[in-house]
Backbone:
């Protein structure tokens, strides 16, 4: 983005930049605001947005940043820098974000491909529901964050998603809402919330919880985060699954080069269910890589290989064996750094999942394809 060529505008722009560099934000804002009445240059709007951000005039700053993002020839690196400011504004002033995805799922009910099972010494044939076949639908999601008192660190949050398939028996709704307190001194947060979900229009679960997240270590090249979460999971129509649940997780990221980074996530889950056969402990490991390809077009590629193991507390009452599951997945996403539509970015997400259980009834495979606009 070149600076305005008009000599008078050029001189004023340089003066505003000098005032900004010197920390005289009020004077810099007056100069850049006057320039916006003389030129429609994205560079002038960008500097005014940065100045207003430093003055904590977040709403006008956000509007200007978003206006600059709509410039057709804006370099993707500038967009990335603007995104950093917008995320900081969102944290301070709150936000509402929408996204829509087209989702294709090969096995929406996670049902096994096996059809013959033995229960109580009797050989039975399993017939899956007729709607468990590849299905395509739309997923609508919304995220909301609202500070209660600015600079206090207290805020409310809400995340909701509705997956709408042609057959309403497969529709899903998930909600997560609550109150959060940012721990500025330690780069952490405490949340008290409620998760809930429905499947096919029927309530599936409720999960009131407490969560502590914490930045454990950070340098220019590394980052390590940790989280603890616990609560009581209730299943309104499946009382035997009600459980006390807790998890501990760690995630790490390292910059490998200017265009690549590596990540590793791990977690431990414990569930103490009302009936012992449905209690379990589980571990997950999720290594991943991100690659930025600049030529011929800037594209960000991400790949991960989630691995999981879960062991249940006692013999399954139907199959007479203690259940053990091993899960392997492959996830891949591609996102353009240059394509934008109304400040929304398209992305393609592919995933494959295989759950191998010692009890064949619980084994399944599935593929999932999503085209996301967020």
Residues:
């Amino acid at each position: 983005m070149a600076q305005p060529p008009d000599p008078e505008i050029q001189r004023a722009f340089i003066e505003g930049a000098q005032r900004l560099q010197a920390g005289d934000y009020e004077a810099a804002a007056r100069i850049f605001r006057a320039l916006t009445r003389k030129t429609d240059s994205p560079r002038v709007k960008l500097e005014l947005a940065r100045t207003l951000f430093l003055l904590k005039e977040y709403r006008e700053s956000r509007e200007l940043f978003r206006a600059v993002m709509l410039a057709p020839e804006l370099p993707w690196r500038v967009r990335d820098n603007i995104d950093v400011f917008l995320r900081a504004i969102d944290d301070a002033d709150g936000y509402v974000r929408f996204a829509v995805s087209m989702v294709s799922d090969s096995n929406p009910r996670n049902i096994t491909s096996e059809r013959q099972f033995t229960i109580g010494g009797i050989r039975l044939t399993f017939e899956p529901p007729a709607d468990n076949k590849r299905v395509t639908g739309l997923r609508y999601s919304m995220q909301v964050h609202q500070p209660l008192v600015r600079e206090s660190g207290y805020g409310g949050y809400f995340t909701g998603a509705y997956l709408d398939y042609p057959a309403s028996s497969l529709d899903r709704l998930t909600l997560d809402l609550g109150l959060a307190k940012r721990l500025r001194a330690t780069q952490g947060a405490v949340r008290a919330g409620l998760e809930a979900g429905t499947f096919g229009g029927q309530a599936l679960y409720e999960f009131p919880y407490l969560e502590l997240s914490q930045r454990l270590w950070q340098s220019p090249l590394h980052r390590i985060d940790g989280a603890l979460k616990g609560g009581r999971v209730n299943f309104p129509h499946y009382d035997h699954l009600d459980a006390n649940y807790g998890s501990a997780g760690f995630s790490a990221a390292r910059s490998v080069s200017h265009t690549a980074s590596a990540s590793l996530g791990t977690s431990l889950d414990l569930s103490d269910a009302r009936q012992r056969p449905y209690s379990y402990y589980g571990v997950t490991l999720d290594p991943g890589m991100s690659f930025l390809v600049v030529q011929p077009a800037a594209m960000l590629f991400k790949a991960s290989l989630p691995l999981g193991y879960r062991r249940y507390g006692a013999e399954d009452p139907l199959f007479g064996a203690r259940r053990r599951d091993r899960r392997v997945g492959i996830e891949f996403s591609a996102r353009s750094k240059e394509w934008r539509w109304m400040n929304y970015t398209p992305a393609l997400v592919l995933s494959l999942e295989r759950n191998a259980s010692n009890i064949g009834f619980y084994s399944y495979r599935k593929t999932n394809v999503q085209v996301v606009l967020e």
Q: What stands out?
A: The chain has two domains: 7-92, 95-373. The first helix runs from residue 7 to 21.
